[in-house]
Amino acid sequence: MVDCVLAINPGATSTKIGYFEDDVLKWKKELTYSYEQVSEYQNVMDQYAFRYQDIVDYLKTQNMTPASLDSVVGRGGLLPPVNAGAYLVDEAIMDCLKNRPVLEHASNLGASLAKGIAEEFGTSTCAAYIYDPVTVDQMEDVARVSGLAMIERKSIGHVLNMRAVCMKIAEEKLGKPYEESNFVVAHVGGGSSASAHQQGRLIDLISDDEGLFSAERTGGLSLKEVIPLCYEYTQKEMSDLIRKKGGLVSYFGTNDARVVEDMVQKGDEKAKLVLEAMAYQIAKTIGELATVLYGKVDAVILTGGLAHSARITELVKKRTSFIAPIYIVPGEEELTALAKGARRVLTGQEKANIFQERAYS
To answer: Does domain 4-138+335-346 have CATH number 3.40.430.10?
Structure first.
């Protein structure tokens, strides 16, 4: 019997959907919106009705009817800290994402959209899930200590893709389960984060405001330099500076690394230096996380949009190849990761968690 799964990944100006039979992608669609269209809504959750209707309309063009789906899975959203894996979408999850999300983000719509589609197109046993939200937290206590008593380090990053590529490399390259492997993974793109995985647990994570800079974000900065800026800019302006106008945008006014690489090809020394510095910081972050695993690393993985760049990946390899074999998994396969997670629940390989809200300490 074939398991039919729909995966839903809401982004800032798009909703990506993919239909899978067992683990095979049959089709995918990106429903896109203009910035002006989404900016009309004060809150992300206010976008539910039109995004839901667009999914419904498209599914009907694919001859979807009631009882077509065995499971629907959505991007997790910014819940308080949760364990890895699947969570059954219930009223508690939807209430938290609507009223008390950690941050406003389009992925907060994933649970509600999955629930709505499951009710309209699912079989009688069809359930809605989310899988590996960005706030998956399996960090060891020693990793939480920040150096300032009132601030605790938090696990917020590209968990869905990072765990998925670990499972992929464990199976296809190492020939052993993720649960028996140690990895250091760097997801590099518009925002970047990196993580250490020990025997199937993500035990430490360096978020996009702590370490490596990216296409749009500054990464970690000297507080001595940042503090005076806080008196020159508003809180929103500072946030935009760090999260939207940092990285390559800060230096070149673009978040497209291909544009910067073209500048290098034309002899621009500044562009060459900044790309080398980006690779330098990625490598330094990988080295930092290797110490978390006491150097016992089975593989280093580079993933995300910037992993398409041969220049950046080769520079990172030069500095980190002594740690472990390096595998490049460019881009992201988040729809596939979502669908495979839901199917592991359907086949009994995993058991879905029930959400219980807990706060950061």
So the answer is: no
